[in-house]
Structures are given as C-alpha cells and as structure tokens.
Hints:
single chain; alpha/beta; Purple Acid Phosphatase, chain A, domain 2; eight-stranded mixed beta sheet; six-stranded mixed beta sheet; 8 helices; globular
Amino acid sequence: MGHERQLVIDMMEPRHFRTLFISDVHLGSKAAKADFLLDFLRYHEADTIVLVGDIVDGWRLKRSWYWPQVCNDVVQKLLRKARKGTRVVYVPGNHDEFLRDFPGMHFGGIEVVERMMHDGADGKKYLILHGDEFDVVVRNARLLAYLGDWAYDTAIRINILLAAVRRRLGMPYWSFSAWAKLQVKHAVNFIGEFERVVAEEARKSGADGVICGHIHHAIIQDMDGIRYINTGDWVESCTAVAEHADGTFELITWRALATAVPALTAVERPEEAELAPQAA
C-alpha cells in the first residue's frame, strides 16, 4: 500500500491556482500538522499565496520552545516560492501579532500587511483579515484567551491519544478537539455571531466578500449578499481555500500523508459549502 501510494503521488501534477489562502498553521505548536502543509505546498502552486494569520504560534513559543525541522521546511518552502515569483502576503493574527509591528515590511520576499483588499478575477473585492479583532474574548479579555488556549492544548492532547487508539482499532480519524470546540461554540452561538460581524465589516469596507481565519471553522457561504470565506486551519482540518482563474473559490482538504488518496477536494466550486468535523 505504501509503495502504491508513493507511486500515485509521484505521478501527480501540481495544481495551479490564481490565489491560495492559508491560515492557522500554528507552527511552534505540537498540534500543528506542518508535515501535511509541506506536502500540500509541494502539489499546489499559485500566482499569489495569502497567509491569513496564526502561521507561527508565538503564544506557545513564549511558553516553551518547540521548533522541529519540519517547521523550518515549511518556512523555507514559502520563501522558495517567493523567490521563484509567487507573491506571498502575510496578514498576522493574534498568535503571531508581533508581526503587526512591521506593516509594509518584506522578509525574504514575504510582504507583511495588517489587512488587505483582494481583487478577485471576477471583479469582486474581498476584504482579507485574520478576524481576531472581532473575537470579544481575545480583544477584551486576554487572560481568558490564554486560558482558552490552554484548554485547547489539552483537547489536542486527548485528540492525539484517541486518534492512536482508533487507528489500532481500525476506526476512521475523528477529531475530539474539533467536536468539543464546536459543542461549546454552538452553545454560545459564537461561530454564527463571528461570521455575521465579520461579514458586516466587509460590507462597511465596500467589499463583496471577506476571507478570514481565526476560528478554525472552514466554510464558504453567502450571507445577505456578502460571500464569507473561512480558510480553516492546519491543526485539525488541514484546509486551504483556492481561487481559480475565473474567480470561483474551492475549499480543499489535504490528507495525502494520512491515506493512499493524495488529495481530497472537500468542496469544489461551491455556491454554499461547509467543512464540518467528521462524525465518530
């Protein structure tokens, strides 16, 4: 099976897009699936790559340093793409907020901006931001945000243990951390409110849509005339959003390292689509 999988991947041709949007990688966290992202970047090219925040997890690195070689490999891969002509733009989030002190700066060809307006191929405009400024917990109660971050770490550890047990039992992958998070978020209606507020910010900015991250909930949907796009994350769902040459958007889930199937398109050119955690 391993040889067949490698043969399939070796035969793959890289897919080329107009734009790729990636967020919430959390390099520096043990939960980050940096190896999945590196694999993804090998088979996906774009004229422009927008990093929509929380690429580096400064919060966790401050607590304890964790930076394996694969984190360097991801950074080097992005730098190499920039050197070869890909425009790479970095919109910092709350976990990598130290970069917000350097708007307009270029690091190895990677451009840092606080937020940006993306001109779609179909003529529509999209506001791009991480989204943490609309998270009341992060904005108004930093201590609570850190406590929530600790609880999320604990859920991730449980997730790793359960994944190992389910693998031994021949059961499919299921994310406990994603499930637990969604139960809490749904209880307080956080996700829906976040989406509504971010979409309204796009409307106020004169945009036709918004592309963000932050809440690790990948989705493409229309909200009262505003296209709301969340790129998801590379901690649980391993998702990215791609813009095609005609301006349509695709939500991609990458599972090449986990299965014999190199790439799984979760949603292709959707009118309205959502990536939800897998059921047990």
